[in-house]
């Protein structure tokens, strides 16, 4: 397929996502099934236009003076793919699968608009109702921080130190261009791809099947590091889901001590069993029912609450979620987070720690939750987050509120957006 055919396919998929309000991954998969002739390179290129279009939906549409899938598809090629009006016209000419070329209105809009001078919510590529949330979280930096959340992400891996080390993995994955991550001590990073490129399918590498590494954003790895799990500890991962952080904690425990992996939704835990087996972890006990946790009350050295959240920190990877999010969903998440913090805190022993993590950048899900929890539960007090950060990552910058927690963002730390607060139970 030439660029025109790929663009037409991307516009069709963007229309489908818009009309059906469905996840981008599902729409792309269905398109692939009904267009089996498309090769791997075409699928990657079409997927990139769709995902870039969703990341930069507002600014791409604004450039053409419209918010249709067509405007977004063309706009994002101009904004992100280094195409020009001229190069696009040349590429589309004579391609019978291409969409109609840019019309006069579109050409006039493009000529009249300077992306740098666009209104703030357009440059931030966010919904209007989210702008005040981002402003509150980032102050004067909000547009820059929000546009960081609209960039392509890298592919990050965590080396499983139960089976391998970083030098061994660097050699194994040399062809991928992987380099050590700056923050996470066991991380590797494969840089974001350009244009129609695609990341290597690392999960088909024999080293993955042998459990030498996992795919995990560096921010998630850093969050697991800040939990401070050490060999011999008793740790409860209260919202374990598919086990991304459980496995990182298990490696930190070096198989000494115990991790209890819990999640209220049994189905979410389903992938954890195979992952545990592959990783060589021998100290993870999966507990899907709350009743199975009864004996752990007041006994844990550390309880991790990796809370359900809006996921606003992961908009680079799931840009469709950015446009589906509603105020009502945020309110539901806030209520869940408060209830989970309350319930999980009962398992921490005196002198132990409660660690609250979200992959959101909104204060409403982060520091506000910590403030409200500390006001209710006087036996808990925050650790010194500056000292915590310095101890683990002395050379790196993060947005730190000493009392409430550490915030990571693409613009600041080059990771997904994460919030981490560590509280000590004093009595
Ligand atoms: C952010 S995800 C966890 C991701 C996981 N820790 C990882 O690193 O891969 C949040 C999880 O919280 C779970 N959850 C939601 N409500 C819960 C509750 N009341 N108690 C325990 N887990 C809950 C969800 O099912 C979801 O799997």
Structure in words:
With 427 residues, the chain is an alpha/beta fold. It has helices spanning 3-20, 24-34, 40-55, 57-64, 69-80, 85-92, 104-112, 120-123, 131-138, 142-148, 166-172, 206-209, 218-227, 244-252, 266-269, 272-279, 319-324, 327-345, 367-376, 385-392, 410-413, and strands spanning 155-159, 179-180, 187-190, 213-215, 234-237, 258-262, 284-287, 300-306, 348-358, 380-382, 399-401, 405-408, 418-425. It folds into 4 domains: 3-118, no CATH class; 122-148, no CATH class; 155-215, 2-Layer Sandwich (Alpha-Beta Plaits); 218-425, Vaccinia Virus protein VP39 (Rossmann fold), CATH 3.40.50. It contains 21 helices and 13 strands. A hairpin with a 6-residue loop joins strand 2 (179-180) and strand 3 (187-190). Helix 1 crosses helix 2 and helix 9 (131-138) packs across helix 10 (142-148). The longest helix has 19 residues, at 327-345. It is globular. The N and C termini lie far apart (66 Å). The model has no long low-confidence stretch (mean pLDDT 96). It binds S-adenosylmethionine. S-adenosylmethionine is lined by residues 238-245, 263-265, 268, 306, 308, 336, 340. The active site is at residue 359. It comes from Borborobacter arsenicus.
